[in-house]
Amino acid sequence: PLIRSYKERAVDLSKIWMFDAVLFPSNNIMRRSIKRFGRLLPDSYVVNNAPMTHIQQDFDENVLDNYNVEQPYVFHLSSKGEKKNVHRTVKAFNKIDEDINLVIGGGGWESEGFESDNVKTVGYIPDEDLKYFYSHAEAFIFASLHESFGIPPVESLRCGVTPVVSNTYSLPEVTQPESILCDPVDETSIA
Questions:
Q1: Closest Cα partner for 135 from 111, 112, 162, 99?
Q2: Nearest to 95 by CA among 76, 128, 113, 119
Q3: For residue 8, what are the CA distances in angstroms to 1, 25, 38, 151?
Q4: Cα–Cα distance list, 172 to 33, 51, 76, 128 (Å)
């Protein structure tokens, strides 16, 4: 199952000596794990994730028309979850006094009631359409409260779009120096 109980994770940790090494998605997560578990960990290495090869800059506007997306817009993509901080991102975006839309992609957000004159949820976006959303965006916003890596900001960089990311956990590590950092608990900083 995708969600494991605390007990199941404790059992996993008890078996860690069975491995020659542990791989982490970022230096940040590796440092935090070593600090927490110390000598329990065998050799540790960082193996960064990478965007899918078909995620690259592409400007076919017909794809956006299929989703009724109006430009200019800032794009956000994530699965539904509190740590993604979308509620605060929407509040911050509503404070912006510019004529720009916020487009939220990813499964589950449609039921949150975010829709307004300048906020649009488009639901799940198939992989083959993602590059068009990234490529046409003015920026990509990912003010997540916690990420072990953060593939969407890296995908936005691959498409030539500057990500605005949280200044916490691994996001600065995997997107700097090309990203703009924000405090994920401060709506003014996100805006």
A1: 162
A2: 119
A3: 11, 21, 20, 26
A4: 18, 17, 17, 27
| Residue 105 Cα distances to 41, 108, 114, 140, angstroms | 37, 9, 12, 11
Residue written as token pair 């198939």: 126
Q: Which token pair is 91?
A: 């509040």
73: which strand partners?
Answer: 101
Sign of CA dihedral 104, 111, 125, 5: positive
Nearest to 122 by CA among 101, 138, 105, 137: 105
* Model pTM score: 0.75
Instruction: Indicate the SS3 state at residue 187.
Output: helix
Which amino acid belongs to residue 133? F
Beta bridge partners of 45: 23
Q: How far from each other are the two terminal CA atoms of the chain, in whole angstroms?
A: 37
**Contact in structure between 122 and 140 (CB atoms under 8 Å):** no
Digit-coded pLDDT (tens) for 19-75: 777 777 777 777 777 787 766 666 777 776 666 666 666 667 789 999 999 999 999
